Amino acid sequence: MAAEECAGLLDDRGLCTVCVAPYLQVDAGALTVAKVGGAVALPMSIGNLSGVQRPLFVTGLWSREASGPWREESLGWERLDAGESRPLSIVANQIERAGAHGLQLLVAMASRWRWRQENFAFTANLTLMVEDPNSEKGPVVNIGGESAGHGNLVYISGKNDARPAIQQTDQAVALPLVRAEREERRLGLRGIDADNWVPRNAEFSWLGFGEGDAPFNGPIMTQDGMLAIGRSRTRRQGGDGDVRLLVFGASDELDESASLLISRRHFELYIESDRLILRVTAGSGLRVNANAYGEGKIVRLADGDVIAPLVSSPERLGLRVSFRVEHGSARQIIFQRLSQVRK
């Protein structure tokens, strides 16, 4: 998440495995005996293996058995510092017959830096193999397919079972966490909606801009992963901005007084959680689709939106946003000036 510090070492799905490195395990010492038809509580731990001292935030936890509905689990904590693990407990309460029982976990996490936040979701699966409760020995629930020699079994007492009433696992069982992109969009954690998203490598195209007033077409390549839009000269022109906005009259003459109403850094554009985000940095604010937003406000942009930097006279200058979508992925984002174009 701290892309400004690590030069944006992120993959195309927006995940940095240096900052975002969670792990999940069933804890050693878990009680492993229960009655058939009862429930098994699985004490677990979730931890943060980040090697750069970045905290993670667990923003949601759900579980389900087989293909049943997700049920939200209660957590009394959120923050996981680097190197830290914290406990949680999941209950499997539908173990009433012999055979394979699936238990699935869904964990929502966030990586935060300043005002920015990237959201992710991961799933983990446990396979519970339950033997016939009428057998001489009690049915066995095998956590994650681990072997009996490692003590990673849950025993559910059968009719003639002579095992001690209290048994425990000998060591922890690691559960691989798998990225769950569809669940991220379903939960509204990432993406434009359930079916569409903006990848980090989306191409930005600029129409109607003067020579050097916009970057070359392509993905965002700045160190902090943001584009600075305003009155300032662009990097191509020797300045510190990325897109230059000036106001011109009907005869293509520069309107200096109107241009001075645009801040040197009026707003920023960046991709966050598979969405195109605008952050207002000008004290005078701006409009998006005629709605006014003040300094510090964050706006999620969509296909067809119009950005007007001048709140009092939005008709003088505008930027229309257009998405070119392929199989749900917005591969190209086009920004078109809606004013007199500088030649």
Automatic annotation (TrEMBL):
Per the record, the coiled-coil ranges are: none
**Family annotation (InterPro entries):** FHA_dom (IPR000253), SMAD_FHA_dom_sf (IPR008984)
Q: Where is the FHA domain?
A: 227-293
Membrane-crossing residue ranges in chain numbering: none
What is the protein named? FHA domain-containing protein
Q: Which organism is it from?
A: Hyphomonas polymorpha PS728
Q: What is the lineage of its organism?
A: Bacteria, Pseudomonadati, Pseudomonadota, Alphaproteobacteria, Hyphomonadales
